[in-house]
Specification:
With 323 residues, the protein is α/β, with parallel strands linked by helices. The chain folds into two domains: 173 residues, Medium-chain alcohol dehydrogenases, catalytic domain (Quinone Oxidoreductase, Chain A, domain 1, Alpha-Beta Complex); 125 residues, NAD(P)-binding Rossmann-like Domain (Rossmann fold). The protein has nine helices and 15 strands. Strands 3, 4, 5, 6, 7, 14 and 15 form a seven-stranded mixed beta sheet that branches. Helix 2 packs across helix 3 and helix 2 crosses helix 8. The radius of gyration is 20 Å and the shape is globular. The termini are close together. The structure holds NADPH dihydro-nicotinamide-adenine-dinucleotide phosphate. The site of NADPH dihydro-nicotinamide-adenine-dinucleotide phosphate (NDP) has 29 residues, from helix 1, helix 2, helix 3 and helix 9. InterPro entries: ADH-like_C, ADH-like_N, ER, GroES-like_sf, NAD(P)-bd_dom_sf, QOR-like. This is Quinone oxidoreductase.
């Protein structure tokens, strides 16, 4: 099969096409034909060595496609079923094995592209607004990188829960997308002298109930300074780089603030939780609450270009590789 292989950690140039044997499904596993693989920032962290990986490996965790074969002891799925997944390393390939407990059925009415474009980032937006900081009607929340993959979905879900979303983006095109997703106010980081002041001005001086920050190093201080008393900073990524160590007394000085650094895999840690969360986000697509914007499609062999574009801030919405 055709796949992307990484032999040494490094820049996007280490993502090279290779001809590899088909994977064999072991006990409890499915062999799946990949219709679309999702590109996520975690693929960048794994590729560049931020998260160390055993080499060589086929990158990619997310995708959607059709079951081609069943390993021993699989009872929940049949050959031909449409499934999606977010934890199958090796998804940048024509075929991948997926642990059956980590696969979710794709409902009719949701295409393979939408399933692969939704699942990881949609379930992330879902746990952030429902569980990490349960967004309440009438709250003010800050969403950074609001035209990105997670950002557009998070903006839609927070707005649908009745929050007033203050979004940050870098360009006019991204501003338009953030507004269409439901942001009430949009700040272009480059155009304000002080981001936290701009957020405070929009909230009558009070600050926001929650700041959802996936950008990390370059926005962390402003996010903390944008919170109201007892507000929560949800730091869930580091697109601009990791945040240096934080003195807990800053939380005290800022007004008894909360800081959390969550990850999706702790919010889908059992097959039941994965199924429930996936079912919820698929339902929100079917009922029109969530619109999944596939911003960019690439041939499998162009995985390096996809990573360059993602890191170069040239993308909006979801990036897919089409094997
Ligand atoms: P995005 O589509 O959001 O792309 C990253 C965006 O971040 C860019 O488009 C850019 O938007 C913004 N950005 C700001 N500064 C930089 C910079 N210096 N370099 C690159 N980008 C920058 O990516 P994803 O939706 O895939 O992921 C967003 C973040 O969410 C990542 O940090 C990822 O790790 C995290 N994440 C965390 C999860 C978790 O469970 N904790 C799960 C899923 C994602 P702009 O041009 O508008 O500034």
């Amino acid at each position: 099969m055709r796949a992307i292989q990484i032999i040494n950690a490094g820049g996007p140039e280490v993502l090279n096409p290779a001809e590899l044997p088909d994977p064999e499904p072991g006990p409890g596993e499915l062999l799946v034909g990949v219709a679309a693989a999702g590109v996520n920032y975690i693929d960048v962290y794994q590729r560049n060595g931020t998260y160390p990986m055993a080499m060589p490996y086929v990158p990619g965790l997310e995708g959607a496609g059709r079951v081609l074969a069943l390993g021993p002891d699989v009872t929940d799925f049949a050959v031909g079923d449409r499934v999606a997944w977010v934890e199958a390393l090796g998804s940048y390939a024509e075929r991948v094995t997926v642990v059956a407990d980590k696969a979710v059925p794709v409902p009719p009415g949701v295409s393979d592209e939408v399933a692969a474009g939704l699942l990881l980032q949609g379930m992330t937006a879902h746990f952030l607004v429902n569980d990490t900081h349960p967004v309440q009607h009438g709250e003010d929340v800050l969403v950074h990188a609001a035209a990105g993959g997670v950002g557009l979905l998070l903006t839609q879900l927070a707005a649908a829960r009745g929050a007033r979303v203050i979004a940050t983006v870098s360009t006019a095109e991204k501003e338009e997308l953030a507004r269409a997703a439901g942001a009430a106010d949009v700040i272009r980081y480059g155009e304000v002298a002080d981001l936290a002041d701009a957020v405070r001005n929009l909230t009558g001086g009070a600050g926001v109930h929650a700041a959802y920050d996936s950008v990390g190093r370059s926005t962390f201080d402003a996010s903390l300074a944008s919170l109201r008393r007892r507000g929560m900073l949800v730091l869930f990524g580091g697109s601009s780089g990791p945040v240096p160590p934080v003195d807990p007394m800053r939380l005290n000085a800022g007004g008894s603030l909360f800081l959390t650094r969550p990850k999706l895999f702790d919010y889908i840690s059992t097959p039941e939780e994965l199924r429930t969360r996936a079912t919820d986000v698929f339902a929100e697509v079917v009922d029109g609450t969530l619109d999944v914007r596939i911003g960019h499609r690439y041939a499998l062999a162009d995985a390096a270009t996809a990573h360059e574009d993602l890191q170069g801030r040239r993308t909006t919405g979801k990036l897919l590789l089409l094997p």
